[in-house]
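Lab notebook, bench 4. The sequencing result for the construct came back, and we need a structural model before the next group meeting so we can plan mutations. Quick request posted to the team channel:

Model the 3D structure of this chain.
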Amino acid sequence: MIVITTPTGDIGSQVLDTLLKNTSGDGEHLRVIVRDPAKLPDPVRERVDVVAGSHGEADVVDRAFTGADAVFWLAPPNPRAASLEQAYAGFTRAAARAFTAHGVRHVVGVSALGRGTAPAARAGHVTASLAMDDLIASTGVAYRALAAPSFMDNMLRQVRSIRDEGVFTGTDTADRKAPTAATRDIAAAAAGLLLDRSWTGTGSAAVLGPEDLGPDDLARIMAQVLGLPVRYQRQSFDDLRATVLGHGASEAIADGMVDMMRAKEAGLDDGVRRTPQTTSPTTFRQWCEEVLRPAVLA
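Done. Here's the predicted structure in token form:
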């Protein structure tokens, strides 16, 4: 049995969809943990076991992990968390105990690039995510942390600005090239590991897009795909912090975002070589054509 957390979230829903497409009739059982089961489409609810509640709660994961062989783990965003530790390792502690108690053998989690680099020591959300990975690995399960750079899909948060003003913002210098990955490729990597559980031990598996691009590159590609003028506007770290706070986040979450973006500028995402094993297939241009353009035109 495979248990999927965040089945209505961006990555979790894509993991679930992929597993549903690849487990029909093969005896692999699927179970999901979801706060609001009504958010699951009816055809999905008919094919999975549903455990209602938060996967940060001990009684919920105890019920969900009973009889489970593998778990897809993702700590959901908690913009009002009092600390990054609470948002990541703190949220995961009940599950870590349940992995051991119920004999879960394999766990696949969504994490971040940066392990072993100097910027990772103070990288906000990334540092907290890596500590969460260490907690899971300490339970003795076979664990793979999907080490991802910034998501292409984060650009969807700026659809209105791109469409109406032809502008998107970020904190990098305009020519600072870095990897990005589509969430669908992260989900595909997770589903593959969950279905083929021949791997052992603990470690990370990088999910890099096919190329490193800077903000000016992103603007050029978006303009070509959308047929609209698009330019990049650099944002200060102080402005980023104010924006995150303005969306209702706690100071800890806002400070963690600033520290993460400052670390990325210092090379946090530059430590993994692009190889056939680490390179995911979706280019930024393809993502713009298939995801961003429909969202802008909607």
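The chain has a mean pLDDT of 97.
Will bring this to the meeting.
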